Amino acid sequence: MAEDVSPVIRFDGVSKSFDSQGKRLLALEGIACDIQDREFISVLGPSGCGKSTLIRLLAGLLPYDDGTIAIRGGKVTGPRRDVGIVFQTSNLLPWLDVEANLRLGVEIRHGRARAASLDLATLVDSLGLTGFEKSFPHQLSGGMRHRVAIGQALALSPDLLLMDEPFGALDALTRDQLNMELLRLWQRDAKTVVLITHSIAEAVLLSDRVLVMCGRPGRIVEEVTIDLPRPRDPAISRASPLFGDYVVRLSRLMGVT
Amino acid sequence: MASRLLSRADRANARDAVLSLLLLGGLWEAAVRGFQVKPYLLPAPSVVLVEAWKSAGLLWTQTLVTLWEVLAGFSLAVISGVALAALIHFLPPARRTLYPVVIALQSVPKVGLAPVMVVWLGYGLASKVTMAALFALFPVVIATLGGFAGVPANLDEHFRALNAGPWVVFRRLTMPAALPNFVDGCKVAMPLAVIGAIVGEFVGSNDGLGNLILTATGASRTALTFASLLAVTALSLVLFGIIEILGRMVWWRRM
What we know:
The complex is a heterodimer of chains A (about 260) and B (about 260).
Chain A: E1 9-20, E2 23-35, E3 40-44, H1 51-58, E4 66-71, E5 74-75, E6 83-86, H2 98-110, H3 112-116, H4 120-126, H5 142-155, E7 160-164, H6 172-189, E8 192-197, H7 200-206, E9 209-214, E10 219-225, H8 234-239, H9 241-253
Helix pairs in contact in A: 2-5, 7-9
Chain B: H1 8-34, H2 45-54, H3 56-90, H4 92-107, H5 110-121, H6 125-149, H7 153-161, H8 166-203, H9 209-218, H10 222-247
């Protein structure tokens, strides 16, 4: 979709295994793919297929065994300063209020001065958290906690935003809302996003391209380009026949139907 | 948050506690009078209170002596306990060497150490402070260790993804996450520090509430013994209450 054709991320023959009770368990095998600048990629697969491992390798949180992962030509050897990650659990510090939690990532990575100059009001507004700036995580709903976690990653203005099933534990309605907000923020800031999900509809709704994985060992079985017009909307997109076609195709690939 | 020191529920609880103590005192009074128990065996609460009133000056000065011993011993236990826990948690060699020593020290009957402390440190403040610290040390170490070990793995990973260095992880994650456990350890340790100081005074001292209990009992002034016990109990309760209230600054109990 972008003019820049050099990939931001390149996986080349990546494999990863874990030692589990004396046995070697191959979690990922022969992962190879390119992700372009400003692309919205979803990685779709059943639980236990290694998609969380994949994103941890990309985030530099786990070492890999073979192959290479490169971000902008640099081999990933540890957590990078231009990558933001949103985890499955919202990971907020319970003793900090919403504002302090939003600032935390920038504070740790770039120092207090940078964090103090953050435009929190705009961020809070774009996340729909106005009025909750001084609330603590235990006073927020699950959906709001996830918004704060996403806001903390966005505040880092990362080149690459990684999301590991950030909406997995939420109800469908909250999930739709957050998906919409994510789309809006992505279109505004045009980052490269890699989203891990096990929801087929979510993958179709959000992505430019879907990487379908299957497990034991985890590998990419198919890449599906989602050619739906943007901006997208959950209600309208789902009603379109093309959306349905993609859902059916991805369901087949995942062996659901 | 804590705009008031004591909430409505606190005051209701305090009222119920006082009522039940008054009831207990009433039963005690009635039993001593009804069965005509000899006062040198068990004085009636009214007799104890009169004695406490008459000896108020003496009780107060002895309470202050014990108070300083307890505060110094407790502080020593907290400082060395946190330091030990940090060493044991963050340095694997210390876990292998220091931790067994701490466990072994806890297994030594500390009452038996009291005479040794008097021999080593004399009749004065030092031996009592050491006894109070020895009694209070273990719960601080164990609770703080539990706090350090209980930092959720997902938050640890989150900090790693943010390129946080070890000092930042400690200051912004490990320490605040361990605080609730640490406060719990302090709550266990404080009454133990009082017991430690009293034990130290029993074994060899010139003053303090423990000394007063011994001398009063020796002089068959049982009412004064009970008044001294009352003072020890009140001291312990007040100190515990202070920890309880200070501990409310650490309100993030659920992670």
